[in-house]
Amino acid sequence: MFTPPRGPALIFHAYGHPAILSTHPTTLEITTSRELTHRGDCVVAVKSSSAVRDLPVDLKRVLSSSNGRGRLRLQVGPFEFTVEGKGDPRLTFSHETDLVVRKSGFTSDRTLMIHADKSSMDIPRDMVRLLQDPTSRVTVGISAIDRGRLRGRLRPAIS
Question: How confident is the model at residue 41, as a pLDDT?
Answer without folding.
Answer: 96
